[in-house]
Amino acid sequence: MTIAATTQAGSTPQQREHATTIFEKGSPGRRAFRAPALDVPPVDGLIPQGLRRADPPRLPEASEPEIVRHYVNLSKRNFDLDSGFYPLGSCTMKHNPRLHERVAALSGHARLHPLQSPRRAQGALELMYNLQESLAEIAGLPHVSLQPSAGSHGELAGVLLTRAYHADRGEQRTKVLTPDSAHGTNPATVTMAGYEVVKVALDAAGGVDLDDLRAKTDENVACLMLTNPSTLGIFDPNVEEMARVVHEVGATLYYDGANLNAIMGYSRPGDMGFDIVHFNLHKTFTQPHGGGGPGAGPIAVSDRIEPYLPRPQVVRRPPWAPNGAPASSEGEANGRLVGGPPVYDLDEERGGRDSKSIGKLRGFQGNYGVFVRTYAYIRSLGAEGLKDVSEVAVLNANYVLARLRAEVGDKLPLAFGERCMHEFVLSGAPMKKELGIRTLDLAKRLLDHGMHPPTVYFPLVVDEALLVEPTETETRATLDAFVDAIVSILAEAEENPQIARNAPYGTPVRRLDEAGAAKRPRVRQTL
Amino acid sequence: MTIAATTQAGSTPQQREHATTIFEKGSPGRRAFRAPALDVPPVDGLIPQGLRRADPPRLPEASEPEIVRHYVNLSKRNFDLDSGFYPLGSCTMKHNPRLHERVAALSGHARLHPLQSPRRAQGALELMYNLQESLAEIAGLPHVSLQPSAGSHGELAGVLLTRAYHADRGEQRTKVLTPDSAHGTNPATVTMAGYEVVKVALDAAGGVDLDDLRAKTDENVACLMLTNPSTLGIFDPNVEEMARVVHEVGATLYYDGANLNAIMGYSRPGDMGFDIVHFNLHKTFTQPHGGGGPGAGPIAVSDRIEPYLPRPQVVRRPPWAPNGAPASSEGEANGRLVGGPPVYDLDEERGGRDSKSIGKLRGFQGNYGVFVRTYAYIRSLGAEGLKDVSEVAVLNANYVLARLRAEVGDKLPLAFGERCMHEFVLSGAPMKKELGIRTLDLAKRLLDHGMHPPTVYFPLVVDEALLVEPTETETRATLDAFVDAIVSILAEAEENPQIARNAPYGTPVRRLDEAGAAKRPRVRQTL
Amino acid sequence: MAGYTSVTPEDLEHMLATIGVGSVEELFDAIPAGVRLGRPIDLPPGEPEQAVYAELRRLAARNVSAEDEITFLGAGMYDHYVPAVVDMLMSRSEFLTPYTPYQPEVSQGGLQVMFEYQTAISELTGLPVSNASVYEGPSAVGAAAYLAKLANKRTRVLVSRGVHPHSRATLETLAVGYGTSVDEVGLDDAVTDPAALRKALSDDVSAIVIQQPNFLGSIEDVAALSEAAHEHGALVICAADPLTLGVLEAPGHQGVDVCVGEGQSLGNRLDFGGPSFGFFAATEKHLRSMPGRIAGETTDADGRRGFVLTLQTREQHIRREKATSNICTSQALNALGGVVYLSWLGRHGIVDIGELMLQRTHYARETLAALDGVSKLHDRPVVREFAVKLDVDGVAGVERVLDRCAVGGVNAGYALGRSYEEHADGLLVAITEQRSREDIDRLAEVLGTAVAAERAAAGAGAGAGVAS
Amino acid sequence: MAGYTSVTPEDLEHMLATIGVGSVEELFDAIPAGVRLGRPIDLPPGEPEQAVYAELRRLAARNVSAEDEITFLGAGMYDHYVPAVVDMLMSRSEFLTPYTPYQPEVSQGGLQVMFEYQTAISELTGLPVSNASVYEGPSAVGAAAYLAKLANKRTRVLVSRGVHPHSRATLETLAVGYGTSVDEVGLDDAVTDPAALRKALSDDVSAIVIQQPNFLGSIEDVAALSEAAHEHGALVICAADPLTLGVLEAPGHQGVDVCVGEGQSLGNRLDFGGPSFGFFAATEKHLRSMPGRIAGETTDADGRRGFVLTLQTREQHIRREKATSNICTSQALNALGGVVYLSWLGRHGIVDIGELMLQRTHYARETLAALDGVSKLHDRPVVREFAVKLDVDGVAGVERVLDRCAVGGVNAGYALGRSYEEHADGLLVAITEQRSREDIDRLAEVLGTAVAAERAAAGAGAGAGVAS
Ligand SMILES: Cc1ncc(COP(=O)(O)O)c(C=O)c1O
Ligand SMILES: Cc1ncc(COP(=O)(O)O)c(C=O)c1O
């Protein structure tokens, strides 16, 4: 009876709602936007015959209330960081302070045109200049370009810088070394930059195998791309020797900064001998991940790489005197420009034909809105706070690791070593063997516990990998709940592995046919 | 198996989450707020012995991430207008344009101090002045006070104005007439204003019974409070005669404006002979209802009531010349004050001892933030748009009514007449008798259909009442879905009334023990 | 059709047919010819969103907000920092767009927020029960007096002159309806005069109303005043500043029966005076005569913890003319802002911020009093606000000084003479955590110059205002 | 500890004990002494939220934004009105705070948004497949060239001088990595020179890159250019302005193989240049070599409709060095803004806004060309943007004119000479639905005066800039 009722009742509205797109809502003639009245004398034929569009794009026809309700309900079909634990390894899903959204929305930042005269964008340029300086100090490398749009974009910049550096010396190198544990963007970047990928093996401890590195390092090697701590959550103890080996053949050492959040205040890529570093501002310095961006991937480089940096860069100049004359205060939008001796400017020259710069990686100056948030974060935390970030990130990760090793270490052993930095990798191989559930099943079952699963099946070097990054903003209570959930799922599987194999149950949809989706791709709606 | 799994899996995270309060979260010593450093020389004993608090209030101790996650998850345990249909009769749950939130948040509005010198608050005063003028035109009454905080506050203002008006004539009246269909705030207001409530019966058509009105109208009657269209959704055809009867004995006629949204562009309270009107800005002019406010309840009155209006009011003055001298442009915060001849001011004088004003109903000038939204709404819609609001509100209500009468008219008959204005009242009595489910059960079962139920058991004059107000911003598809849901619930009840009697099933909690809550009230957490 | 409606011609045809009428106008036939408007409403035509935004921005730009100047203006509402989490949570659709939680099964979010809010207010005030908010501060004072009347049927209220002028005015307005008379009790050296109070007290007094800290910023000896009132069986109503209750003794521990107040300083914007919220807490025995919504804890059919609106028999929608108040739509969203703010501030923050205001208030008072032509209005202990005397020509003089300070980008405060004839030369200065020592020193600089200039101008017989 | 962490002393003790170390420092033992910083990071100490807010506000106030002046500055990003619904939806936690939808069961919201976005972009461009966005406009051009290389293995790209200078520069930077050479095709009378194109084309050309409307605002005959390219088996890559595609023929209907562009004008803020998004659409046969995320429709275990990331074998996390692109984190949130904006604009709105820009561009062009010292740079049909010549002394002269206009509160546009030596005296003026006729007339007034003043100053041999 009650079952019947429950069934007939269906579950919550969000679950019962069948997915209908905005194109399936609305009705012909409905609209939200009302154009301003045409206030100029209309003229016909402004677009030559044949160039005018005959059949306008079939965009939705919906009222504002329909649009709001559609997307609000869609949003409820997402799991998000504000709602629960999100230990997605390597992605650093830490709390997003809402102060950042508030300051980024200030019209002086949000409605500033990228080509506004530097004389009327002093606030933005000062912010970018200060951010360049801060990132240089954090990286331990003197020169920064804020331009790259994300980490992988920064990687591309870095490898192209390496190419420019060698080309400038008349060298034609062909290979780039990446460890087996490297993130997919590293090899993908190497290919796009026109190099051949050479994999370097790992040693028993999960670090780079020095012998293999030495064996593969020769004059054709342009660069070694390294993530340290690695995607295994291990700080490579041989980093100094690796730097020596690589520099010996004149190659550059590239630091993938995705895991920089583990070592702030303890060590810096520059101090380790790296030539080029990219930051994932959206990870280390928190940024709402937006369902897959936006982010930003600034790079910091050593002196020898500096001449090749992308342009423009923000520079600080002696007080501005346009055409020798001080700008009239009226013209200065309420004296904004007459304030303050140091004046900030965009240095475009180096972008000119004759320069050594690799040029532009994108339009304008980069993801400024992301810079605003990062700057606010660095100002909020300060030197101490940033160190605290790394300490607690590492503390939280080791706490979760310690509990898991003690309670389910036999089923989900740590891939390498005993401890970790800010994240760690477990292998689900024994679990699969003994309980008959895969890492994927464990992940799906976690969804029923209201948690986002860790990264799965990465890094590739670990069988049935589970990459866990709790981050520093989670409480002990949350960490404990996560461990408890995993323990209970394994216990449940001992009883009945089917439950995990068929999980999840309580989500808006259940497991989806991905193979079918790829076989007959439907990537747009037919209207 | 699957059942078992489902059970063990629980349902969605939101349902499985057990209610824990913010006081139960956090941990001793945790904090989100960091106070600015003490930047003045500290001095001891600034608070005399005994007046200093020994045991600070036990507020939560939580980090910002915990706070965000707690309240975000709490919010998901609410049903809201942005997510679904909300035909709560008499409350006008119409779409809330987000433009209103944007403009209300502009710092020039949001961070303006209520005691800022009028010379430096010209924008706010101009807005309030224009709003007064617009509301006067919409009400058809010349004078407006924006001060009341909500409809019931406006009612209290109105009845106190009536008292002042009569007192000024040396009259001591004792009674206020309210029809049986009146909203609860009407009689409650009458009592707080020191009058006796006299109920007036309804006639067969649901309008006020003229004979009963005549019989009860005498020199002791101070006022008749009327809602027109009434809470039955009926426009009283005898309103002119009623006005005559009431005015004949020197009483005032009060218009409860909660349903004004039904007649904009067609008729105005002033034209009907009313002396005093309150607006529910949060209904007629849309306003996010905030889970129970804020709103605003401005009043419009006739000339004879004007002398008694609360103060301050916004007036327009000849160009300002402080102490004869034009303010220095410097001092004018960038010429804000030198612009524009008409200068707006707060007229406080009338609030003085010797004035006839009833004085203040609250602090400062009223709910300005609500005025900003209302003003934006009126500017967006204009005269035509406001008329459109009433027309579509009435159209939508009649469409739903027509379908329900055709499809379940026998079980859920319309209480009076054949048609309605912007809302209508059905009686669940036959449904209760024939299907064995009450209006309450129907309402609860609607929750499982992802819709908010209409107002139930109000107005009191209708047995098992169901008061439906679709509003003008809902689409035909939504209206049809609502009718279909009701039809299917009645069909389901025909099969098995238990389902509705035990509903809801898919909500975060199921029916709650309200009796128990009232018997042993736990209105705060014991810490 | 315009705006946010969405009836297409095709919808219209179908709907009219279903209803069985030929036109929308027909649906308005019930309106008698005699009361029809018969012309369009006389308002400008509607504008697209971008134009309305531009217009509202134009108006905003004509106001000088706390973002545009260094402000020491308080007198009931204060420029505290509103943390971003408050805005973010208040703007969640799920909190922003529902109405009063009449259907608890789908309103647990709002109901639990009320319960948490009530708990926080109860903790702040030291009183066992709180409602879920009323409109705002001054009307909360009026509502408290009504509760007192219901409690002891007495018809006289004594109100201290230290209570906010708006609260006193509101009380007088509403008391007419209650049939209650209001008498004022004067101040002695900036606090409620105990002797005057004792003299005014008698057994027909329903309640006394005091404020902590009072309008002049001074700390009242609430316990002593309460004792005097209770001797005559009168209730004690105290309007308190919630942000001082981390450092000032809780009214509930000082014999206060009903503690109310303005909640704006708790995470709510200034908004030119509203919307904010009023809090309302009392002793256990008044629970069933409190105004407004009250959330209570209970369990659901499956035994799960849940919350409901409780004791609704107090309320207008059930009890009608016998209700303990007529309040319906209140300030739920603002109260949400309040409890989120208090959670953000936290157990230690409420003390830290109180202490910071205490110290800075002292520093500011001493700094200003050291200026030429500026002196303390009184020597009493103060917190968050204090008054000084300016050696200028009455209220007009003080207001000219304020204009001069505004030229310097500083809002020096409130001209006390606007509501206290006896302090025509008074200036009321408010301190928040946003006013740093640097700001205070800047105030001193600007105020000193302004007073000097004003005195010079006055001396020159000009008094010609800021243009000079 | 500071900031957003929450380890209490008690937590710390318990956690260290569980881990089995005596201090947090111990957890960093793996870091060799030789690479340790050994001193605090040299950055200022952390500040409370209110102070950081104040600092960011100070910086914002030192920028002159589109809210502070009447701006006609475009050249790739435009001051369109962003409807409030876009902000509201982009700031929903559920859209704002998750990451890439790796777990589709709990990411249907984001995945369906991608699917709707892809549908909208496909409709706009007239091409069957779209990805879920790339970084932004110019890098999208670079990505398109890579797709062309993968498609036909050819190593030469021809790019029209009408393409945005930033797109050309980005293409050149990235082409070095592709091993592709980039040759420019000049303009003839403000559109891509067909003769020059035909001359430059040969069977080693991988793709041609054009822009619609081009950087000078003129409408290219895309079909003709495509035909020429296809004759040599080269792909046609067209960068298009999405807001003109309601009135301009869809690139997909003109033989374009890959249509990309800057998405900022679709409900995204200016943000001093980013973040925005780049759109990327192509013909069916390129589906499996597209860069970036692609959402596809499918069904779940219970047969319910659902969406997933599909064709992931293209991507770096699966295919690594064989991936069709290295892109990972992209611009999902900005693309959400884009599809919400397009839904808000709607099927009729996209035409209305295009027509409005078309008419106003014409009006503005004629109005400015009528001014003394101002003339049309060319007579070609234009939409949304156009160029004029100023009779002043080169780029420096034009920039001084811009400074003079800024004094009048008008941003007159972009000094074309900054990227086109051949148009040193050129001014590029952009029109949006936010620039009314009144604004345009105001521009004419201010520009006319500024040009006159500049010529006078130059005549006086001064050229002394705005101070005069
Ligand atoms: C180790 C590592 N490297 C590089 C990247 C690529 O960074 P992005 O996604 O910002 O392009 C990531 C992010 O997923 C990463 O985890
Ligand atoms: C008919 C009627 N009158 C008066 C009121 C009271 O208005 P408010 O809730 O704004 O106090 C309402 C609102 O519920 C109502 O529906």
Brief digest:
The complex is a heterotetramer, with two copies of chain A (527 residues) and two copies of chain C (468 residues). Chain A has 527 residues and is an alpha/beta fold.
Give an account of the 3D structure:
The complex is a heterotetramer, with two copies of chain A (527 residues) and two copies of chain C (468 residues). With 527 residues, chain A is of the alpha/beta class. Chain A is built from 18 helices and twelve strands. In chain A, the strands form three sheets. Chain A has a seven-stranded mixed β-sheet with strand order 1-7-6-5-4-2-3, with helices on both faces. In chain A, α7 crosses α8 and α13 packs across α16. The two termini of chain A are 43 Å apart. The N terminus of chain A is likely disordered. In chain C, β7, α9 and β8 form a beta-alpha-beta unit. The longest helix of chain C is centred in the last third of the chain and has 38 residues. Helix content of chain C is 38%, strand content 15%. The C terminus of chain C is likely disordered. Chain C has 468 residues and is an alpha/beta fold. At the C-D interface, α2 of C face α2 of D. The complex binds pyridoxal-5'-phosphate (2 copies).
